[in-house]
């Protein structure tokens, strides 16, 4: 069976409460051999670590931009301390999910930017890559990355081609997931098809960003049809769309994106050797 890495999956989300075990088992049945589970605030640091160890996955610790308004300034110290405490944990692979979000109304942009800059510095100090939240904020993220000295993954990338290439130049891989399955997502599909193949990693962002076959419109939801819940088990089908867009064999896409994930998050190499499609 083809082996896949879901480089961004929130197995600790409330939508998975009580059934994370079965969700992860379904992913394994579909060949998803590894999930990266990023934290979003200090309060879920312990649970993402526990889930990663329980399922043989990996995790990242960070403060999401959408949570900065309710975070305390001292939470940055808590992040630094947690990274130090678990520095020898091979399943701790990144600082994340961090970044900037200029789409959601009501978030304080200055506070987001301060937390972002501080977490980049923390990541550099601990020698870890970062997992970035990029929503209407690519240029602002890049501005600080040019002097940050860190690489990693730009998750759910939806910027321009020029921005994409600049992230790649700075040592980042770009995450593609459910959005690429929508025919109307022309820019994302163009990037998935045309960017250098060594720039791509695959993700679900489960339970969010459902692929087209799970998505329900507002009208459908009003008629009582529930929104489909995204899961890491959807990753191979998402990958089929990417492979079709690029005109390449699915097995080759698995091999290259597996390798790309290891380059973006170097600690994965020690966790995944026997699953590597290239071996």
Any descriptors?
single chain; 279 residues; alpha/beta; TIM Barrel; 11 helices; 8 strands
Order of strands in the sheet with the most strands? 1-2-3-4-5-6-7-8
CATH topology: TIM Barrel
CATH level-4 homologous superfamily: Metal-dependent hydrolases
Based on CA atoms alone, the radius of gyration comes out at 18 Å
Proportion in helices: 40-55%
Shape: globular
Q: Tally of extended strands?
A: 8
Count of distinct structural domains: 1
The largest pleated sheet is described as: 8 strands, parallel
Low-confidence stretches: none
Descriptive report:
This protein is an alpha/beta fold. It has a single domain, classed as Metal-dependent hydrolases (TIM Barrel, Alpha-Beta Barrel). The chain contains 11 helices and 8 strands. It has an 8-stranded parallel β-sheet with strand order 1-2-3-4-5-6-7-8. Helix 3 runs parallel beside helix 4 and helix 7 crosses helix 9. The protein is globular, with a radius of gyration of 18 Å. The model has no long low-confidence stretch (mean pLDDT 95).
List the helices and strands and how they pair.
Layout lengths: L3 E3 L13 H10 L2 E7 L6 H11 L2 E4 L12 H12 L6 E10 L7 H18 L3 E6 L2 H8 L6 E4 L5 H9 L2 E5 L9 H9 L5 E3 L15 H5 L12 H12 L3 H15 L3 H5 L7
Parallel strand pairs: 1-2, 2-3, 3-4, 4-5, 5-6, 6-7, 7-8
Helix pairs in contact: 3-4, 7-9
Give a quick precis of the structure.
41% of the residues lie in helices and 15% in strands. It has helices spanning 20-29, 45-55, 74-85, 109-126, 138-145, 161-169, 186-194, 218-222, 235-246, 250-264, 268-272; strands spanning 4-6, 32-38, 58-61, 92-101, 130-135, 152-155, 172-176, 200-202.
């Amino acid at each position: 069976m083809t082996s896949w890495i879901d480089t961004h999956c929130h197995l600790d989300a409330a939508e998975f409460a009580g059934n994370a075990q079965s969700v992860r088992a379904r992913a394994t049945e579909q060949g998803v051999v590894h999930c990266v589970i990023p934290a979003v605030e200090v309060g879920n640091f312990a649970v993402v670590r526990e889930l990663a160890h329980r399922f043989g996955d990996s995790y990242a610790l960070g403060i999401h931009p959408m949570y900065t308004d309710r975070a305390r300034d001292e939470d940055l110290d808590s992040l630094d301390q947690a990274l130090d405490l678990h520095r020898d944990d091979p399943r701790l692979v990144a600082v994340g999910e961090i970044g900037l979000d200029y789409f959601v109304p009501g978030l304080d942009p200055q506070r987001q930017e301060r937390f972002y800059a501080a977490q980049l510095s923390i990541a550099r100090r601990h020698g870890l890559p970062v997992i970035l939240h990029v929503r209407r904020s690519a240029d602002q993220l890049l501005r600080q990355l040019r002097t940050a000295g860190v690489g990693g993954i730009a998750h759910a990338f939806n910027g321009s081609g020029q921005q994409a290439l600049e992230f790649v130049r700075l040592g980042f891989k770009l995450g593609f997931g459910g959005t690429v399955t929508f025919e109307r997502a022309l820019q994302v599909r163009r990037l998935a098809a045309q960017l250098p193949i060594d720039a791509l990693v695959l993700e679900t962002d489960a339970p969010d960003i459902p692929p087209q076959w799970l998505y329900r419109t507002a009208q459908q939801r009003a008629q009582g049809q529930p929104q489909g819940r995204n899961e890491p088990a959807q990753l191979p089908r998402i990958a089929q769309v990417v492979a079709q867009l690029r005109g390449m064999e699915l097995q080759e896409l698995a091999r290259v994106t597996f390798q790309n994930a290891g380059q973006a998050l170097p600690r994965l190499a020690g966790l995944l050797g026997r699953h590597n499609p290239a071996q």
